Amino acid sequence: MKRLWIAGGALVLSSCAHQVAEVRPKASRPRLYRNTGLPVVRPVSMQPAMEQQVRNAVYAGEGDLEAREFRRRITSNPQDLDARLGMARHYRKMGFGELAVEHLRLAAERFPDSAGVALELAESLAGQEMLAEAASGLQAFLAKDANNRAELPSLLGILRDELEEYAAGESAHRAALAISPTNPKLHNNLGYNLWLQGKREDAVAAFRRALSLDSHFAVARNNLGRALLESPAEQDRREAVGHFEAAADRAVAHNNAAAVLMEQGRYDEARKELEQALAVRPDFAPALRNLALLTERDGKPLQLPQTGQARESRRSRVWRAILGIEKKPEPAGVTLAKRK
Predict the structure, then answer these.
(1) In whole angstroms, what is the distance from residue 247 CA to residue 256 CA?
(2) Distances (CA, A) of 315 to 227, 281, 286, 309, 326
(3) Which residue, 10, 20, 2, is CA-closest to 338?
(4) For residue range 75-123, what is the model confidence (pLDDT) as tens digits?
(5) Are 120 and 92 in contact (CB under 8 A)?
(6) Is 180 helix (H, G, I), strand (E, B) or coil?
(7) Per-residue pLDDT tens digits for 291-331
């Protein structure tokens, strides 16, 4: 299935909807190199064993001075919570999320009333794709502890959204706002949840509230534009383009509006937006590709805005861009923005 081309800047894509700390980080294992100048080739069969040796070395702290220091502190003082959290964060940073989870589970047993441990454990579990366990753990902690940290119910709301438990997610987002009612990120999170539930008007109101608290909040502005484009009203479409333009430039804004409209099957409106994008930047590759895709979908001929340059030369440049001969941006599907 072909995907729509989104120019960078106007729509922050799927890694951006909610505004608390990253819930599902994608850590990668560190690569080790020898300073010999020559490639080191090892048999494929040796790789699993060597990877396990690296894991064991990290776990034991061998050759890792930072991990060794955290381990020394924990051994000398098992109640050193900062050292336990530091060890877990270190393993997450190094790409060993499963080790971070195990350390945090031990910390949660020793410090069952620590909101910091509950939050770190939920984030680490989510990073390991264990969303249900992360959500249930946070839910249990919040049920037994009345705290004034909005991060916990906010993260619980995000996890419920990821699990498609939207009603429970809405309750969690509203609980976070009850603690911190002037936090624009929390209003954006609630708006995203409402949008997922199909409550477009309520979502628009939440995004507007976020922008009233922070007019420079680009994520909420893009989310508002995306939600407004679901309305058939011309006025809402113009406002949506205005929000996109505030985050980028006119060509990007019109192209991204066109991509959303194409996703909804509103091809005539999408064509108008693409024409305006190309009127601003005639060789704008994402808009050219979307125009070619639109031509395939609606069966209308490929029509390009006229410029002062020769038509044949212009058409040649267009097809070079469409065929990928010129440098092209990475494609991305249209979605509501999540995290900043």
Answers:
(1) 11
(2) 35, 14, 15, 10, 14
(3) 20
(4) 878 887 777 788 878 888 888 888 888 888 888 888 888 888 899 999 9
(5) no
(6) coil
(7) 999 998 888 877 776 654 434 455 555 555 555 544 433 33
Geometric angle at alpha carbon 78, from 73 and 79, rounded to 5°: 105
Total count of residues recorded for the chain? 340
The closest alpha carbon to 319, from 301, 339, 292, 300, belongs to: 292
pTM of the model: 0.68
User: What is the rounded average pLDDT of the residues 168-191?
Assistant: 96
Q: How many C-alpha atoms does 66 have within 13 Å on its Cβ side?
A: 9
Rg over CA atoms, the chain: 25
* Higher-pLDDT residue of 61, 131: 131
- Residue 163 has what pLDDT? 95
- Report the pLDDT value the prediction gives residue 175, as an integer from 0 to 100: 94
- Rounded to whole angstroms, the Cα distance separating 116 from 265 reads 46
* Chain centroid, CA 163 distance in Å: 16
CB 137 within 8 A of CB 122: yes
**Average pLDDT over every residue of 186-213:** 96
Please identify which residue in the block is written with the tokens 């989310």. Answer: 223
CA 216 to chain centre: 19
Two tokens at 163?
């699990």
84 Cβ neighbours under 8 A, 6+ residues apart: 70, 74, 103, 104, 106, 107, 110, 117
- Check residue 326 and give left, alpha or beta (phi > 0: left; psi -120 to 50: alpha): beta
CA-to-CA distance for 6 and 12, rounded, in angstroms?
10
Highest mean pLDDT: which range of 4-8, 69-73, 80-84, 215-219: 215-219
Residue 154 neighbours by CB under 8 Å, 6+ apart? 18, 20, 172, 173, 176, 186, 189
